[in-house]
Amino acid sequence: MRxxxxxxxxxxxxxxxxxxxxxxxxxxxxxxxxxxxxxLRNRNRIRTRRGDTVWMTVPVIGGRNQLIKDVKIDxxxxxxxxxxxxxxxxYGSTRNFQEYFDPLCEVYARGFTSLxxxxxxxxxxxxxxxxxxxxxxxxxxxxxxxxxxxxLLQLVTYLKGDVYLSGPAAKSYMSDELWEDAxxxxxxxxxxxxxxxxxxxxxxxxxxxxxxxxxxxGAEAPDYIWGKYRQKTGLP
Length: 236
What we know:
five-stranded parallel sheet; two-stranded antiparallel sheet
């Protein structure tokens, strides 16, 4: 069985994103759909020592009337410095900080002008730190003619997938008949059972960027996503 996962590029995503990446044979960055503003394409959250959670946002040029792959970063703003300083303030004294911070700086230093290019490069780097060996593909490199579900199905069939692994939110609107007729099994990811871990402040926030987990537990991070500490209870 060949399993395919498809998600829009996200900025330093949370651990559930990487749980899907780890579980599939091929992961597709859905970069040729409409960009959504005030979304996870260009921002994500980290914890602070004050006990709250703050956004780190990549400034972009233009609005929603463009495809994700065409979105450009606003290089006139010192956002990289702000993000790195925010990470230092929150996690600088953690045991694993320098191990990840230095190579993270090297990624930012590549000078990305494309938002999707930045997102994909960071996702590749974080996946490597987790030991993930999944094949990555950009949707924009695959010929498709459909929209929405038709587009997803075309991507899966082009990649010779037998199984499509989707996020659980899609369960309410996906057409079983469409996928059944194509001979593709649809599975929905179970995000339950992620264990808590010690964060720099309370209360615990499960939805922050994966960087939080890496800085706090280091090489044990996979154990808190799909490994020995994960307690899967199944979807309701």
